[in-house]
Amino acid sequence: MERSSFPDRPQSLGRQIRTSDTQPIFSENALIFLAYILLFVTFPLTIWFCLETVAHYQRIVIFRLGRLRKGGVAGPGLVFILPCVDEFVKVDLRTQSFDVHPQEVLTRDSVTIQVDAVVYYSVRNPLDAVIQIRNVHESTKLLAQTTLRNVVGTKNLMELLTAKESLSRTIGGILDEATDPWGVKVERVEIKDVRLPIAMQRAMAAEAEALREAKAKIVAAEGELNASKALKQASDVMSTNPITLQLRYLQTLNTISNENNHTIIFPLPTKMIRKIITNCSKAMEKANCCNDPNSCTLTSVSNKKIQTNPEKQDTGV
By the 8 A CB rule, do 32 and 65 touch? Predict the structure, then answer.
């Protein structure tokens, strides 16, 4: 297949290596002629060594005596290979992926982290992938590692944690531009994990917990303020009609009885409770007088004096 069969491939930025326009020398032509003679003499046994099957997702680059054969890329289907003269390299056009090993990087705000990623790429130009570089797959892996380290080193920690997608697109664009002369298209780059030191994780967790506690206190204070305003408004409404306080009291009793049915509540007016308390205190005083008649007589005499001379008591005589 000719190179023009890949119209969607971007223009290569590196040097272009094409089929040689110079004519083969006499010794090369002689070797090619001898190879054809050997093929016809040993036919049909050698025909099985001359045909190479190329899958639909593969392309084949053929070299004849070290020179790139005319046509450059061949396939898919059956491709004729001249024994002892031709050499070929198969190139897979399917999308491939590899993991970028965790890279220890110092961010712009001086935090040491470990970052790993996965890269998806495919070969768009088999001729450049074979001629322009020795090992396109290994070179792409090494370039992805160095690009990841360089890009992450220019970012802050919070940018790495919150903007992974934009960082992945930036790395993918740099890799795609750098591997274009090799005939490689970087389709996608994904950052898998950003690993922080244990001390940094604890510090960030403590900071987040403190922020949550501060927000909770603010919300609770705002709730108390709103509740106090609502209670003030309710008290203003209840003060206009005393019966509303009794209704509220009965509603509270109903709520308590629904929550715990074993609890029995007897509402008593405060005036009745005060009257009971005063009666009990008078009864206790009488009991003390019966037990001690001297103190009882002195108390009665003093009470009589106070009653007979109220004016003197007021003046202090």
Answer: yes
- Angle, helix 243-259 to helix 198-240, in steps of 10 degrees: 140
Answer whether 64's CB lies under 8 Å from 97's CB. no
Rg (CA), the chain: 49
As given in the structure block, the two tokens for residue 127 are 């001729």
pLDDT(294) > 50: yes
pTM: 0.61
Q: Which residues pair with residue 194 across a beta bridge?
A: 115
| CA-based nearest residue to 194, from 181, 185, 184, 204 | 204
Say if residues 68 and 20 touch (Cβ distance below 8 Å): yes
Q: Which residues contact 164 (CB under 8 A, 6 or more apart)?
A: 191, 194
Distance from C-alpha of 190 to C-alpha of 99, rounded to nearest angstrom: 10
Q: Which position has the token pair 């750098």?
A: 178
Q: What does the alpha-carbon distance between residue 172 and residue 154 come to, in Å, rounded to a whole number?
A: 16
How many other CB atoms sit within 10 Å of the CB of residue 154?
Answer: 11
Q: Which of 26-30, 125-129, 303-307 has the highest mean pLDDT?
A: 125-129
- Burial class, 31, CB count within 10 angstroms (exposed 0-12 / middle 13-18 / buried 19+): middle
Position 314 pLDDT exceeds 60: no
Q: Give the C-alpha distances (Å, rounded to integers) separating 240 from 234, 244, 279.
A: 10, 9, 34
